């Protein structure tokens, strides 16, 4: 009998051994430059219909599905699986994606990479049945070099296994015991946990001889001269190159020489055309690698000359006071879920402009790169947020350490990817973090827990400033949340719903609480303040003679009262309405039909009365408080 068990055990070990594969961790630096096409670089977008198979028992690896899935469904990439299949609406467990592709013969001899722009939340990647790598995290790209896995002149197969299981050790956090949300699926955040390949997957080639890995452009201004401080990182043995800045009738070139793969230069642009919301002037920065007089690689990006600064009461762009009128948003649309859809993005910019907004926050995760390009071109100021939403800075030490690791990874990914966009004026390291000793716990936090939370949270700010000393850094504080963290921020940013979640029905009461709270915060911290979220659920088409909760009239009056408070205070620097449009979230008793209805537009982008009100108030008075 014993012998029988020993044999079974041995067979189990052997079979596990056979299936144990080594997955490289994705390297954040590999996503620093978005793939482009020019005479040295190529790319192929793998968007389209992929094979798709649900793996609720997580048996795919053991059954070697990486060699090809059978009896599968079809799925569109980009797009969230939860919206494409009825039975998968609330499904967050493992799924497999598979696509066959050819590499053009002309790419032979180049370095070939794959960039997966969003595999939420945890993904493993195989090419031709061989384990390539893995990545943890939502709504951020990752890339792997593929050369050793590819076959030339034959079909290749990419397989991606993805899951979005909610867990207390992940960011954002889910399945938190005792969480006040009481929602399904059990996410510790208020938007639907849309899963899978939400953005496109791109194959791209880079010159194998040596290529540009990263370009960091830091702008400055000296009187009328614009300065672009450029740092280039490359790989390979090439030692020299050029940086050329083009735009507005000027072309300025400088030679660069590399030492330890890095080169820096500073380009002066006389009479520079600065970037601002009114005049979103852009310059092209082209970097060329050269060897023996011949070009080996070239990369161009668009950026702007502008500086951001802050004092006790104001934020300045190029030395001029600015006021942020705008929204918190979501990437959310029927059928597409959190998937990238260019027509929706274009429409959203059109509608934001229609209201007269000049800014938005990428709540509550980084958006597709296209958003930042559009913002650069249309003069929107962006508060770029990481996926660290509803972050819990206390609780079990192991889980806390895991979350801290992922938060830092996000900061690298987000800053490497988005650092050259002039539209990004602030980084937001976290939305509504808290310092609870236990997950989901209410009540006071002990001194020791607070101290631990403070020093860990400070690391987020230190890292952000180290990676990018040129932008403002904030976190967004919740109602009744810890206030001692405001010491760390450049601007006090708060989300407030007085008159909605508290004193319901009384806008007057709510706005007067807001007014005195803002005064207290400013008196204590001597920093400019911004309300990064305020709003109320509004059922489109519901009306009342006198404002009443959920009616369009209540939303207009609520927004008006909050904007009036802001207008009366010279240290308030921005008001972002929650939310631009209605969006899908987990089911709960406070979310009718699984929707958060705080949009000033419906989910289909039809205006509520509040959208018209904002247009009246903002459009004719661009950039002003009124
Ligand atoms: C805020 C959160 C946001 C929610 C909003 C709300 O930052 O994600 O959707 O509350 O309750 O606290 O509508």
Automatic annotation (TrEMBL):
The UniProt keyword set, sorted, is: Glycosidase, Hydrolase
Which positions fall inside the Glycoside hydrolase family 2 catalytic domain?
Answer: 308-619
Kindly give the InterPro entries that the UniProt entry links to this protein. Beta-gal/glucu_dom_sf, Galactose-bd-like_sf, GH, Glyco_hydro_2, Glyco_hydro_2_cat, Glyco_hydro_2_CS, Glyco_hydro_2_N, Ig-like_fold
Instruction: Give the EC class as a word.
Output: hydrolase
Locate the Glycoside hydrolase family 2 immunoglobulin-like beta-sandwich domain: which residues?
211-306
Instruction: State which Enzyme Commission number(s) the record gives.
Output: 3.2.1.31
Q: Which domain of life is it from?
A: Bacteria
Could you tell me which Gene3D superfamilies the record lists for this protein?
Answer: Galactose-binding domain-like, Glycosidases, Immunoglobulins
Q: What is one process in the GO biological process aspect for this record?
A: glucuronoside catabolic process
Domain spans labelled Glycosyl hydrolases family 2 sugar binding = 46-207
GO molecular function (one): carbohydrate binding
Which Pfam families is this protein grouped with? Glyco_hydro_2 (PF00703), Glyco_hydro_2_C (PF02836), Glyco_hydro_2_N (PF02837)
Q: Which family does it belong to?
A: Belongs to the glycosyl hydrolase 2 family.
**PANTHER family hit by this protein:** BETA-GLUCURONIDASE (PTHR10066)
Name the chain's protein: Beta-glucuronidase
Source organism of the structure? Plebeiibacterium marinum
